[in-house]
Give the backbone structure.
Amino acid sequence: MSAAAPATAATADAVTAAAPRLLAASDLDQTLVFSERSAARAVTGLVPVEEYQGRTISWVTPAAWELLGELVASGAFVPATTRTAEQYRRIRWPHRPPHLAVCANGATVLVDGEPDARWSARVRARLDGCAPLERVHAEVARVVAAARAAVPGSAEPAVRDVPGAFCYAVLREGQRPALEGPLLGDLTVLLDGWGYAVSLQGRKLYAVPRPLTKSAAVAEVARRGGYDGFVAAGDSLLDVDLLVAARAAVRPGHGELFRTGWEHPRVRLLASRGAAAGEETARWLLAALAPPARGAAQKECSGPGNVPSRTSSA
């Protein structure tokens, strides 16, 4: 019987060595970090992670804060956000920011906070076939102006460009219900013919070129890092390509994908919502990166939701 113990340990080591080396990629807003509106709980007692114009605008739970610190420390975590690089830099991280980040829906890859020039050049080439951004901007401005007209006395929406990438509008109080329906549907159909996807997230309306994806940028980061693939998390239609390209993924019980009833066999729907879902997401991502336990050789070496585990970098 004594000979069995070394064999079991050797088998466990072999399974660990065979497990794929994975990267963890996640959207930020309403996936890992939350506004007061989207937190689904009082923000008292939450950890502030973003300040803007002198006030706190984003939070995470205390447990999520600790989990984010572990994710960053793993070296295998990449935020993948539609935020611009400037907006992304407002986020506060435990100890230090991640070494790499995907911003502007894949238009920018940051390496220690600075844009990667090679990737930016590839993105510019990919967008050559899409309609000019100024033309899309004009249509978005027209539609949100119509939504404002339907809400007498409401403030003017802001329409902004991310140069060389996409445009978005920030709706004001009461304007989202006026936009939903025919206005949004007609805009979606029009811009689809121009090579753009439309996504309504909270008070922000995005028009993004279809070739501009988070999944392409994350796949490039994984390739450069020698990873075998990635796991992912996200809540919006702009995250769909990332979730589908991942080996396994999760989405929270809220957000655009939840409202539209979107499903995919490799994407698990979490039971929680709001900031609690952010905590659950961070825990899931960290578990997906954890090496299998030495005594688990006789079990499937997988994280939650049958996620293949990542080998230790040691």
Remarks:
- The two ends are 31 Å apart (CA to CA).
